[in-house]
Amino acid sequence: MAIVQVLIFSFYFFIFSTVGSKKTCSNSFCGNNYFPITYPFKLQGQNPKDCNDYTDVRCNSQDNKTILNLPFSGDFYVQDIDYYTQKISLCDPGDCLVKRLINLNLSSSPFEAIIYEDYKFYNCPITNILYYRFKPIGCLSNSPNATVVTAIVTSEEMKLYYNCSSIFSLEIPVSWYGEYENTGILNNFKLTWNVPHCKDCDEYGPQET
């Protein structure tokens, strides 16, 4: 009986000591942003003691913006970080995301598109598309014409029904197929990341250790 009690005590001691030994990744906040900065992100200049594979973000205290730099693609504002689904929402500080997506290069970064979708860009008389499904891309439009995008409507239909001329095609990172079909390309997009789990600390959602 005494041996059994010793074994039970040893088992519970092991369980509680293991749980108690888990460390929590350090959290930081940038300005009044509601989302924390934690693994796999850290504020530039901080040196957490747990893992080494962090991605730096910067905090712009003047306008409370969190900034992520993508190598070869430059700085983006961070709108949101969802640690559970491992998605980060980014937007263009210059408010013309399309121009940034044309040269988007995700190599040398831990980020990748959720999916890609091929969108075709058209130049259309603005009076022909005002009351239809297409929303002009302001930073690429010059009155009396407007630049619109679609992944569904064919070039023949765009020419026949709206008198639009094709400009170019572009594979765009999207969260789901048809994301920009009725809204035009907004000033934000999402990426996902793929980094090893941090074994030294507790994490969010599916990365929990």
What overall geometry do the principal axes of the alpha carbons give? elongated
Integer-rounded radius of gyration: 24 Å
Q: Give the overall average pLDDT.
A: 81
Biggest sheet: strand arrangement: 1-2-3-4-5-10-6
Give the beta-strand count: 10
Q: Give the N-terminus to C-terminus distance in angstroms.
A: 36 Å
How many separate helices?
A: 4
- Order of helical and strand elements: HEEEEEHEEHEHEE
Main sheet, how many strands, which sense, barrel? 7 strands, mixed
Q: How much β-strand is present in the residues?
A: 25-35%
Kindly name the structural category.
alpha+beta
Percentage of residues in helical conformation? 10-25%
Low-confidence stretches: 2-22, 203-209
Family: Belongs to the RING-type zinc finger family. ATL subfamily.
Enzyme class: transferase
Keywords: Membrane, Metal-binding, Signal, Transferase, Transmembrane, Transmembrane helix, Ubl conjugation pathway, Zinc, Zinc-finger
Organism: Olea europaea subsp. europaea
